[in-house]
């Protein structure tokens, strides 16, 4: 069965370190999204991609970057982790863009000390 | 940009009763309104969605209604069951633009 996976599931890091969160999908979807989930804010879009070599900024993109070298993967990089980036991160993919069913991964809980 | 407000933030109902969660949106051009359910420790999962060319959509015990004039939409769950306990998120988008999510409603079904 097709799926979307994230790794690691839990990560503790220190302020200033570079961190990369992995997202891998086997749906063969062109569209992939990264969200962060914080209490009181729901899900906020960080970056998204509509295909290989395409990346776009979401509403909370400062301090984050993504790259899309193939259809299956969209890694999220925190260039210099900050305590404000402590959150739960979700990756999602869809067949026909944002206004289509988005399939979410299980999430990565990141703690920045 | 789009702003989506969701109420209530928590909701407790007796098993078998109905639950209603409401969302309002700010951009009158928005035309796609999905609802996602998130169980503990998992990612959100789409349960139902509606587009602006219809006013209501049903799927078994779940229904969504849309009032474009008032810019609000609601999720209705009838005959609630323990497995309905979860966090529910509404969202809105225009065309194929990015989804804007509400802040979530934690629904608890009391046996």
Explain how this protein is built.
The complex is a heterodimer of chains A (113) and B (111). In chain A, the strands form two sheets. In chain A, strands 2, 4, 5, 6, 9, 10 and 11 form a seven-stranded mixed beta sheet that branches. Chain A is globular and about 35 Å long. Helices cover 0% and strands 51% of the residues of chain A. With 113 residues, chain A is an all-beta fold. Chain B has 111 residues and is mainly β. Chain B is 0% helix and 55% strand. Chain B contains no helices and eleven strands. In chain B, the strands form two sheets. In chain B, strands 2, 4, 5, 9, 10 and 11 form a six-stranded mixed beta sheet that branches. In chain B, strand 9 and strand 10 form a beta hairpin. Chain B is globular, with a radius of gyration of 13 Å. Chains A and B meet through strand 5 of A and strand 4, strand 5 and strand 10 of B.
Provide tags for this entry:
heterodimer; A: 113 residues; mainly beta; seven-stranded mixed β-sheet; four-stranded antiparallel β-sheet; 11 strands; globular; B: 111 residues; six-stranded mixed β-sheet; five-stranded antiparallel β-sheet; 0% helix
């Amino acid at each position: 069965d097709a799926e979307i996976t994230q790794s690691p599931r839990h990560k503790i890091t220190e302020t200033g370190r570079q961190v990369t969160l992995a997202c891998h999908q086997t749906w063969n979807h062109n569209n992939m999204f990264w969200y962060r989930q914080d209490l009181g804010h729901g899900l906020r879009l960080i970056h998204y991609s509509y295909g290989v070599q395409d990346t776009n900024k979401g509403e909370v993109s400062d301090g984050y970057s993504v790259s899309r070298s193939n259809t299956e993967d969209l890694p999220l990089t925190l260039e210099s982790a900050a305590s404000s980036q402590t959150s739960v991160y979700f990756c999602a993919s869809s067949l026909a863009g944002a206004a289509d069913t988005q399939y979410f991964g299980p999430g990565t809980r990141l703690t920045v000390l | 940009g789009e702003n989506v407000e969701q109420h209530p933030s928590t909701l407790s109902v007796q098993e078998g009763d109905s639950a209603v969660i409401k969302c309002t949106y700010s951009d009158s051009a928005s035309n796609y309104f999905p609802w996602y359910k998130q169980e503990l420790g998992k990612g959100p999962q789409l349960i139902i969605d509606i587009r602006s060319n219809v006013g209501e959509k049903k799927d078994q015990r779940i229904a969504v209604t849309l009032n474009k004039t008032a810019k609000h939409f609601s999720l209705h769950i009838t005959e609630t069951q323990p497995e309905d306990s979860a966090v529910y998120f509404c969202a809105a988008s225009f065309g194929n633009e990015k989804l804007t999510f509400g802040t979530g409603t934690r629904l608890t079904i009391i046996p």
